[in-house]
Amino acid sequence: DIQMTQSPSTLSASVGDRVTITCRASQTINSWLAWYQQKPGKAPKLLIYKASSLDSGVPSRFSGSGSGTEFTLTISSLQPDDFATYYCQQYNTYYTFGQGTKLEIK
Amino acid sequence: EVQLVESGGGLVQPGRSLRLSCVTSGFSFESYAVSWFRQAPGKGLEWVGFIRSKTYGETTQYAASVQGRFSMSRDDSKSIAYLQMNSLKTEDTGVYYCSRDVYAYVWGSWGQGTLVTVSS
Q: Which spans in B51-104 are helix H?
């Protein structure tokens, strides 16, 4: 099975900050990586697929990069609505999620 | 508007069965694969399995943790997908989500989830 490891597990930041979340795969997944945002009590929301493609309607302050085993999600200028938990997911071989990164208000 | 609505969750004893439904609207259901995910209380997301469209034989794939106990089916005439869960275990407790693929098995439209609690 492909393991996905996110860091950090928790991130404290302020509105306007630039933040980066890292996701590492236990083996190469090419660019078959998605990022999801989840708020308490809600379903996950797709942000990015194929490592760097923004889903329709997702603000341009979100961006993704990477390939192989190392990936990042960057939010260029945090907005109040962005405080949530973020998950990476590989879909090279079925599906595996990272453990999540909780983005908190500092 | 694309909508997916899960139902059928509830409290069930270990070893018993439960069937979840995913009622959809707003898109051509027969053309899309449907996947199920779950999330244990306070935990992360886990893929459960998916069912392809009729074009791809309605074939299914399951996570190892549910293989042999869970099965998926679909009724294209009603735009509903089903998750049949047998031999339930306490570790199957969680919110179950159904989802439709938006970019070749990338899951971009999700339901609100239904809670399954397996407990004696």
A: none
